[in-house]
Amino acid sequence: MSFSLKSMAGLCALLLCGVTHAEPTACERFKQQYAKQYAEIHCVDKDTAVVRNQQDEYAVVDNQNRLLVPFGTYPVIMAYNTFSHNGKLLLNVVAKGKKLGVINRNGKTVVPMQYDDIQMPRQADEPIIVTQDSEDSWRYGLTDQTGKILLEPRYYRINPFSEGLAAYSTDPIIKYGEKNPHARYGYLDTQGKTVIAPQFANAHEFSADVAWAQHPDNGDWLLIDRTGKTLMRLPYAYQNVDNFDTSNLAIAKKNHLFGLINKRGESVLAAEYDWVYWQNKEQFYLLQKDDKFGAANAQGKAVIAPEFDVPTDWDWNKEQTPQGQTAFVRGITVYLFDQNGKQIDQRPARYATQCAHVAIGLPHKSRVGYRVNKVFTDRNYVRFINAEEHWTDGQCSDVAAPHKKGRTHKKRRS
């Protein structure tokens, strides 16, 4: 199965990995206007929303609140796993028999309601991946965006397409309830034709006409081109490696720690961090070590030591940080750095006053046994953990005030 070291959505949502926010679209304004009319509103493109009413029925409406697909037509209309491009909108729906299909904006069936899973394309020239449950395993196939079958569901795996190719396997991925070590991956094109025959133990997505694939015998990672030719080999000590980015560097996992390599396979940033992520449109690499954060610049040089509590946005109102800069919180202060790691400014955290009393290890006000494990004073966020390593989220107001030792008075000698 393809694996990306960047797939850290939950953590990036908390750590603000370079996300910026544009002006609200027509659909988002609609969402604000009709929030009380519907139980749920989800924008699926700039002019269309999937809505759910109080009776738990789904419909599709435009930004004028006109019904495109009436309530109750389908038990579920999914607001995720959709596809929108140049006015074309494809929606994944669940029919009455719990089978999945695809409709367009006006409710016309594009893919019949006969599949157990559907994965929408990410690009205009990609097919739809459809899945049917068979006796021994799920089988994957392809249809084009008009619903024409390109490949009957027969493969045991088809991963998402990238640059016109997708990793696939003709072998069962799961065998007798366990991962099948003999499963082999190859690549097929958008018409379902094999381009690289199944031969790898693992296979990643293509990026800039190259992809990482794992040798089936010794576990080495191979950088291959679109014909399957090996361009570079990384030794088995690397457990995983991501695609190269715009700086021609790749995040690599070696001996269970993360670093950066270049296209010659040379180490640029030593693999000594618990995690490495892209940050602020790939102008920085976020470094995490011992639950503290720092950064490397776009060339892979560590310029900010991992000694901060958490990264944040410098401009809180716009939820962004200027290009070529990065910001971190330590305690109740936010620090701004340039690409060379030089501090250029600082400000109080947004909730500095409310969180001034918070410290690691302080107890929760009401949840016995839970103590502060992490605090994010720019977002009024506190994570508590107990002895069993169960955790719960809260705010600074949930933290008990530190105990103040009373003053002792010596008896006056008479």
UniProtKB/TrEMBL annotation:
It comes from Conchiformibius steedae. It comes from the Bacteria. The keyword Signal applies. This is WG repeat-containing protein. Keywords: Signal. Residues 1-22 form the signal peptide. InterPro entries: WG_beta_rep (IPR032774).
